[in-house]
Amino acid sequence: MARQQVDIVIAGGGVAGLTAAAAFGSAGFSVVIADPAPPPQAVEDEASDLRATAFLQPSIALFRDAGVWDELAPFAVPLDALRVIDTTGTPPEITAERTFEPADVGQDSFGWNLPNWITRKVLTETVAAMPGVDMRSGTAIDGMTQRESEAIVRLSDGTSLSAQLLIGADGRASTVRRLASIPTRTQRYGQKALAFTVTHPLPHNNISTEIYNRGGAFTLVPAQDVDGQSASGVVWMQDGDVAQDCMQMAPEDLAEVMTLRSCHVLGRLTLASPRRLWPVITQTSTKMAAQRVALVAEAAHVLPPIGAQGLNTSLADIRVLRDLAHATPDALGTPKMLDAYEKARGRDVRLRASAIDLFNRVCKSDAPLVQGLRTAGLKTVHDLPGLRRTIMSQGMGVAQNT
Ligand SMILES: Cc1cc2nc3c(=O)[nH]c(=O)nc-3n(C[C@H](O)[C@H](O)[C@H](O)COP(=O)(O)OP(=O)(O)OC[C@H]3O[C@@H](n4cnc5c(N)ncnc54)[C@H](O)[C@@H]3O)c2cc1C
Q1: How many Å lie between the centroid of ligand 1 and the Cα of residue 15?
Q2: Mutation to probe ligand 1, out of 8, 48, 49, 51 (largest number of atoms < 8 A from CB)
Q3: The pTM is what?
Q4: Could you point out which of 99, 113, 163, 369 has its C-alpha 20 to 30 Å from the C-alpha of 74?
Q5: Helices (H) and strands (E) in the chain — how many of each?
Q6: pLDDT tens per residue, range 205-237
Q7: pLDDT (tens digit, 9 = 90+) per residue, 124-178?
Q8: Domains assigned to the chain
Q9: Ligand 1 near 166 CB (within 6 A)
């Protein structure tokens, strides 16, 4: 039987893979997207990813272009300001507090917050209805032959496809990366990140709050109300053994500990979802492309959850790939296109990974000198308007507005 020919095969139906499918499908390319795991239908599902993502403005623009923003918007909460608090000791004492406003970089808001499980569910439904996109749920990519003119991709259901381009969006343990023999560099910190939802008596006013102490940041990301109460997503980075203890704690004991750790900024915090634990690592692939293959998102780079960089960096990969494909559709998957992709993304990813790696080491340190530098650094970055605007523009991935 003749092998089915398509423009693009995407491995992975996480947020990155689904966004890529929408971006290429809406640009007129034929796409097959495969993922062995079905998307979660409810927050309690075992497979439900309890992280929330702050999608910054360039990512929202990509969602709009791909025709999926109207479906996502009803679940999104705007991110109107970022409050950063530095603390020292246990219980934490506040040493500095500064608020960053989007007007500094010429924007109305930094972006929009969405729970990952809802984003994945809505994107799955929207992408499945797109003409030109063929979704193969329950199917993994498990083999590949790279040729000058095509990638032959083998699926776990025994079928195979011929594609101009295979996009590996299959996460941090990427099969596509392994099949393309692309090595990775991994940095571990002995830290883990807890992710869950809380309710609280004080309103969040659409402000995201990051509270630093030894072990890492405690971040409260504004969410939609839960049962009529104000709610936030929590991402809490700390030493691995402490994070494990928090996973096991009874909800009322956890409420005590996390309310103290949050310096009571939103009043008493109450657990409102299951908890998930994530290892904190920096992992980068040595290349982002190989013959007929492009890696995007966590298949190419995993970053510690600081400053909403992870998935936003991932969506920047997809934007660049889409733009290259759109500019010269006949060159899809050719060495010329993939060299241009490597050039456009490799350096930015390496710089971002190095900056976040350094920032994370400074943030988690309990050495008094480093803690003092962290407090001084926060005040300096915020209080010098030029520096503040430069750092914010870099972090958001927008052109600086002076
Ligand atoms: C606690 C925490 C908080 C975070 N907060 C933010 C934030 O605020 N902002 C931000 O930008 N980023 C954030 N991040 C990062 C962000 O959540 C991740 O980058 C993102 O969810 C990863 O998406 P992905 O699609 O690359 O990978 P995944 O979600 O891991 O998806 C990969 C998919 O590939 C599938 N797959 C695996 N093997 C195969 C195969 N052989 N064939 C086909 N499919 C396969 C898997 O089933 C899976 O569905 C955070 C990370 C953490 C740990």
Answers
A1: 7
A2: 51
A3: 0.91
A4: 99
A5: 11, 20
A6: 999 999 988 888 999 999 999 999 999 999 999
A7: 999 999 999 999 999 999 999 999 999 999 999 999 999 999 999 999 999 999 9
A8: 4-73+115-186+282-363 (3.50.50.60), 78-113+190-279 (3.30.9.10)
A9: no
